[in-house]
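Quick one:
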Amino acid sequence: NVQILECGLSDHLHDQEIFERGSRSTLFFDPAVVCAARLERISLIRLDDFLREQRIDRLRFWKLDVEYHEPEALAGASRILRAKAIDAILIELSHVTFDAVKAQLASVGYRLWRLDRRGLTRTDTLPGSGTYNLVAMPT
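Output:
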């Protein structure tokens, strides 16, 4: 089942202002978004708390696209990650958070794979610059 919630993910419960412009939004100052952007206040929750409240003990798939907030969102999912109870996580990452996310996922037994036209390729680095779609799966 798919459920859309009007909130974001983090490592603790709090409200946060985000910059929003059209289909782009970010917690961080990004000139491409911030110019002519509007501020919106959102609630941030921990994925572990939400899953416990909903009595969900396993996720087949988690799409994580949080514009440089990946380490915090993953920290808020530490219980389910340690249990290796997420089959696959699709993460959009850039060089900004890649090393931190790779270490964080490795510490709970997940490996990163790069997703491209050829399929999945194991990766420990990102080529060039830009953003990449990566898949994390339990080892």
